[in-house]
Amino acid sequence: MNQNKMSSRLRTIIKSALAAAVLPVLFIYIMIAKPDYAIMNGLAHVVLPVANWVGNVITWPVRFVGSTIENVRELSNLRTENEELRVRLDDALRNKNLCDIAIAENQKLARELDIVQSQPRDAVVADVTYDNTAFHHSTFFINKGIKQGLEKGMIVVSTDGMLAGIITDVAPYFSRVRALTDSNSNIAVRIAGSEVYGFLQGNGSDTPTMGFFSDPEFQASSGIKLITSNISGVLPNGIAVGEMLNDTDVKVLQPKSLSRVVVLKFDAQDEYKQ
To answer: Are 132 and 164 in contact (CB under 8 A)?
Structure first.
């Protein structure tokens, strides 16, 4: 039963298609053989829509395939452009990273140059070559020595002006510097902005301690800035030393954080040599 219905429907569709295909032929025949414009005008309203429908049905597979091919081509082009843009983005990020590194190095060099220019003419810039921290001792070496005019007892500061240590031994081309964290380090300091004095004692750890203050009523606390004092006659006055973490411990420069330092020269009158 179902097969008979399907066969009947199929025959109907075939007949309709044949009729639709015949109509354009009939229309063309009338145009050529019997050019009756009234009939032609009447048939045009029937034949042209049918012809368009038949054309659309016949050409649909071709148009579908063409559209699919065009979409595939556009997708391929998009993928190619995406890969090119990804490569350009990677290059741009790489160049930005290099620029950031160059800017950071330039700023560092500019700061170091400013530090050197702000120091006396005979201040010496040196590189830290080795640091040693063992058995409560903390020292480091710099690549300048007697040949550059360095002497035992000279002051070493970081490029941003923080006290790093004091030269204890000098050779022709290198010097040993005792850091503030060394257990043998004991320097006179002053509370910045006051006349309260004390002594900073190294203990072999990362945080030296304050063991004495000239004002017994002074209450030490976190955040207080310390600078050098010349009361012992060893250090010049006013070099930044560190910051108190609590009532005894002080945060100072660590030798392992240094790569370049400046050696300062000063005379017995506590003035930098010019």
So the answer is: no
Q: Closest by alpha carbon to 232, among 255, 250, 214, 253?
A: 214
Alpha-carbon 204 to chain mean position = 35
Q: Structure tokens of 232?
A: 């012992």
State how far Cα 142 lies from the chain centre. 31
The CA–CA distances, whole Å, from 117 to 22, 53, 151, 156, 169 equal 101, 90, 21, 16, 26
Alpha carbons 196 and 242: distance in angstroms, whole number: 15
* Letter string b/e over residues 238-260, b meaning 16 or more CB atoms within 10 A of that residue's CB: ebbbbebeeeebbebbbbeebeb
What is the tens place of the pLDDT at every residue in 117-152? 445 556 889 999 887 777 678 899 999 999 988 999
Distance from the Cα of residue 53 to its chain's centroid: 64
The per-residue b/e assignment along 101-121, b for 16 or more CB within 10 angstroms, e otherwise, is: eeeeeeeeeeebeebeeebee
Assess contact for 139 and 168: CB atoms under 8 A: yes
Q: What is the average pLDDT across 85-105?
A: 80
**Which of 253, 269, 254, 243 lies closest to 191, judged by CA?**
243
